Amino acid sequence: MLKIADLVKRYGTGEPVLKNLDLTVEGTSIVAVIGSSGAGKSTLLRCINRLVEPTSGSIELNGVELTSLRGKDLRMARRRIGMVFQGFNLVDRLTVMENVQSGRLGYISTWAAITRRYPKDDIARAYELMERVGIAQYANTRADALSGGERQRVGVVRALMQRPEILLADEPTASLDPRTSEAIMGLMRDLAHELDLPIIINIHNVTEAKEYTDRIVGMRYGRIIFDDAPAALDEDAMEAIYAGSPGADRAAGAQAA
Ligand SMILES: Nc1ncnc2c1ncn2[C@@H]1O[C@H](COP(=O)(O)OP(=O)(O)OP(=O)(O)O)[C@@H](O)[C@H]1O
């Protein structure tokens, strides 16, 4: 369980970007975080894996307080948090298998990684996951030869190789065409349920958020102002989340699509 309580993030001396935010994600659920540009969605995700230092408050993952961890303890905790990125963050000149195995860095010795002598179990697990997401045939192909959708599947498998306790996805479909985007969202939803894995997705496309997630968290000016099932995201809720903001047109466009 992820339990965030009273989380505040202030960059420098400015206004807080996250304002006393509370959020609990339990069990197997895929949660979309929506909101206009600047609402604080990325900051929230980055506070969870400590890419951004929270100013105050608590973030607990399965009983471990993450905000106070340093050094080795922080590195260990980060392994338990998988990340999927908008730009995939693959190493282009490496093969799919090598990229996927980089999810095990920190678990295996540096020597094993450099010489690509991956443990048998890791290879078996990689094939299992690559088969599951439909990229096993590309195991020995360079990452830069793949399409966007295939590259994001590599990104997902790499994150799953960590055997994470939670998966955070920061606009994972924003660089993809609509059909591929839907396929990746469907895949993540299915994986959340199959692997018993909570997933938090920062997403601009409200239509996809409604279709592929179990719960929608709407942010505005650093606060959560909506937290409910997708079906409850009606026009009033959309207005409250987006009215008058630069994200309004984009979200409305996505809804109409
Ligand atoms: N490193 C930083 N230093 C200073 N201010 C920052 C930094 N990162 C983000 N901010 C500010 O914090 C606020 C929230 O940004 P954040 O990226 O979390 O919003 P967001 O909801 O993810 O937006 P978007 O949808 O555009 O990605 C914005 O006003 C942004 O300018």
From TrEMBL:
<keyword id="KW-0067">ATP-binding</keyword>
<dbReference type="GO" id="GO:0016887">
    <property type="term" value="F:ATP hydrolysis activity"/>
</dbReference>
<dbReference type="GO" id="GO:0015416">
    <property type="term" value="F:ABC-type phosphonate transporter activity"/>
</dbReference>
<dbReference type="Pfam" id="PF00005">
    <property type="entry name" value="ABC_tran"/>
</dbReference>
<feature type="domain" description="ABC transporter">
    <location>
        <begin position="2"/>
        <end position="246"/>
    </location>
</feature>
<dbReference type="InterPro" id="IPR003593">
    <property type="entry name" value="AAA+_ATPase"/>
</dbReference>
<dbReference type="InterPro" id="IPR050086">
    <property type="entry name" value="MetN_ABC_transporter-like"/>
</dbReference>
<dbReference type="GO" id="GO:0005524">
    <property type="term" value="F:ATP binding"/>
</dbReference>
<dbReference type="InterPro" id="IPR003439">
    <property type="entry name" value="ABC_transporter-like_ATP-bd"/>
</dbReference>
<dbReference type="InterPro" id="IPR027417">
    <property type="entry name" value="P-loop_NTPase"/>
</dbReference>
<keyword id="KW-1278">Translocase</keyword>
<keyword id="KW-0813">Transport</keyword>
<dbReference type="GO" id="GO:0016020">
    <property type="term" value="C:membrane"/>
</dbReference>
<keyword id="KW-1003">Cell membrane</keyword>
<keyword id="KW-0997">Cell inner membrane</keyword>
<protein>
    <submittedName>
        <fullName>Phosphonate ABC transporter, ATP-binding protein</fullName>
    </submittedName>
</protein>
<dbReference type="InterPro" id="IPR017871">
    <property type="entry name" value="ABC_transporter-like_CS"/>
</dbReference>
<keyword id="KW-0472">Membrane</keyword>
<keyword id="KW-0547">Nucleotide-binding</keyword>
<dbReference type="InterPro" id="IPR012693">
    <property type="entry name" value="ABC_transpr_PhnC"/>
</dbReference>
